[in-house]
Amino acid sequence: MTEALIETTDVYKIYKMGKMEVRALRGVSLTINRGEFVAIMGPSGSGKSTFMNLIGCLDKPSKGSYLLDGIEVAKLSDNQLAEIRNRKIGFVFQTFNLLARTSAIRNVELPMLYSNAKNREQVAKLCLEKVGLGDRLDHKPNELSGGQQQRVAIARALVNDPPIIFGDEPTGNLDSRTGEEIMEIFQGLNRNGKTVVIVTHEEEIAEHASRIIRFKDGKVISDRVVEKPRDAVEEIAKLGNPVEEMV
Fold first, then answer.
1. What does residue 98 show for φ and ψ, rounded to 5 degrees?
2. What is the reported pTM?
3. Region 180-208: what's the mean pLDDT?
4. Mean pLDDT score of the chain
5. For 6-48, how does the pLDDT look when each residue is reduced to its tens digit (9 = 90+)?
C-alpha cells in the first residue's frame, strides 16, 4: 500500500509585478508517495523550480492545497515552515552552498545547530563517512574537488535524518563521471527508504529516477514511470578508471 508524502491539489503560484500577474504554476495536482525517486524536468520558465520551492516549504501556494506528510503547508507560519524544513527535508543545491572558511565536518553540523541536536560532531562524521569522505573531515571547500563538495552538501542534508531529500540540479556543475557518482549516492539513499526528488535539465540524470514529471508553462504535461532506471553503478563501471581529480 502506497502512502502519500507530498500531495498538491490545484496549486497556483501567482507573482504580482506592478499591474501584471505572472502565473508560475497553473493548477498543479500531484502526489509523490513515500519512498519514491522522482525527477522533475522542463525548460526554463516551466514552473519546475517554483514547484520545487513550494514542496520544499521555501514558499507557499497562492491558491490550492499542499499537504506534506498530512500537514497543510499553506496554514503554517514562517517559523513553523522553518521547523518543517529542518525536520523533514534535506536540500542539495547545484552550487553546494558551503561556508568557504569552514571545514567539511563543521559545514555538515550546521543544520543540527537549529535543532539543538546532541552529539553533533559524531553524527556529522558518520554522515561524511556514508558519502565516502571520512578522510576529509577537516578539509575546507577550496581543498575539495567539486564532487567532494557536493558529497559534503549531501552529508549536510542527511544529518537530521529527514524523510525527504531534494536536489536542485545536483549534478549541474559536475563532469559525467562525478555526476554518476552523486547519482549513485542518491539511488542508495532511495533504496534505504529516503524519498528523493530532483530537478534536472539532463535527460540522462533524470533516467536514474523511477518516475519523471515534466512541466511546461506552469502545468504538468507528462508524468511517467521509468521501467528500468539507469543504474549509476553500471554507468560508472562503463566509464572505466577515474582520472585523478586536481584539487
1. -95, 150
2. 0.92
3. 96
4. 92
5. 999 999 999 988 889 999 999 999 999 999 999 999 999 999 9
Q: Are 65 and 74 in contact (CB under 8 A)?
A: yes
What residue ranges define each of the domains in the chain, with the CATH number in brackets?
34-61+85-239 (3.40.50.300)
Q: Which residue is associated with the grid cell 559545514? A: 107
